[in-house]
Amino acid sequence: MSIDLDRYPRRYCSICHSVVRKEFAPGPGGRPNASCPRCGSLERHRFFSVLLSVLEPLLGELDVLLEVAPSPETSPQLSRLGARRHVRLDLGADNRLVDVLGSLTDLPLPDDSVDLMVCYHVLEHIPDDLAAMQEIARVLAPTGVAVLQVPYRAGTLTDEDPDADEAERVRRFGRADHVRYYGDDFEDRLVASGLSIERVSPRSLLGEDMSTWLHVNPDELVWIARSRAGASVPGRGLAAPTALTRTMSDLIGELTLVHTRLRETRGEVRRLRTSQPPAPRTTDADTADSAAMPAPVRHAGRAARRVGGRVVRGAKRRLDRR
């Protein structure tokens, strides 16, 4: 099915659960159509909400949920999972709300204790990222899952320099507090640290059309990691569409079709209104009664009213002369 989503300009934000009519605002670095005009969420936050909904039935009851570098967009999404302990951890370099001050390279948690970890855009800040990855593998429970995301350029090798000055970091890595920009060997680092990985993207999970409607980057990768020594890096072929992606595309196609028909019908109604002369003003009762009568009866009624009027006026004049 060929879908013209420009004919349905509204978009949906999965963070504030709103159908948005306005243009999405630019994101960091002037990236177009990135930030929801209602809640300010970015592409990664909106896809995270969808991904979490998909993962939720697979997670079961959560004892410990570890959120590294929590954000106002992700913390409420994670709270709905009902974990017994939702631990928000960060170094304390800014004013974000946390439960524990700590480093990802030395987590204050026992082995095999975390059922779900969320670590979004953290590893690119850490000079010793291998130590951080090993800590992730150490604290994950045997059935635990880590959801990871980093700045990533496919088809390249990781560019890193923890000793670079701020100007050089901005030029090479996009921000002054980043020490690297990951490439394909990011996955090799994860596996070497004792993790098995599965990559997922909006395109593979939702399809391109639904990705457009949600204003998410269809090819921005997220990694689902588990603690498993001796795993191998998965093949780099594109993920095949699933029944879910086809269903999403069909839904968007139907939504676009209905919206197009609605616009066309409204245009036809406006055209008919402007082409018709204004009707004489009548009361609701007159209109209802007239519509219910056959045409000969309506004509006879009008004639009777004219004759009756003349009779009444003549009688009135005779009374006046007396």
Question: Can you put this structure into words, describing what you see?
Answer:
With 322 residues, this protein is an alpha/beta fold. The protein contains ten helices and eleven strands. The chain has a seven-stranded mixed beta sheet. A two-stranded antiparallel ribbon has the order 1-2. The protein starts with 10 loop residues before the first strand and ends with a helix. About 4% of the residues have low confidence.
Topology:
Blueprint: E1 11-13, E2 18-20, H1 43-59, E3 64-68, H2 75-79, E4 85-90, E5 100-101, E6 114-120, H3 129-139, E7 140-149, E8 159-160, H4 166-173, E9 180-181, H5 185-192, E10 195-200, H6 202-206, H7 208-214, E11 222-227, H8 243-275, H9 284-292, H10 295-321
Parallel strand pairs: 3-4, 3-6, 4-5, 6-7
Antiparallel strand pairs: 1-2, 7-11, 8-9, 10-11
Helix pairs in contact: 7-8
What key attributes describe this structure?
single chain; 322 residues; alpha/beta; two-stranded antiparallel ribbon; elongated
Brief summary:
The chain has 10 helices and 11 strands. It has helices spanning 43-59, 75-79, 129-139, 166-173, 185-192, 202-206, 208-214, 243-275, 284-292, 295-321; strands spanning 11-13, 18-20, 64-68, 85-90, 100-101, 114-120, 140-149, 159-160, 180-181, 195-200, 222-227. The longest helix has 33 residues, at 243-275.
- The helix count comes to 10
Average predicted local confidence, pLDDT: 83
Q: Which structural class fits the helix and strand makeup?
A: alpha/beta
The main sheet orders its strands as 5-4-3-6-7-11-10
The parts where pLDDT drops under 50 for at least 5 residues are 288-301
- Helical fraction equals 40-55%
Let me know the largest β-sheet. 7 strands, mixed
Shape: elongated
- Oligomer state equals single chain
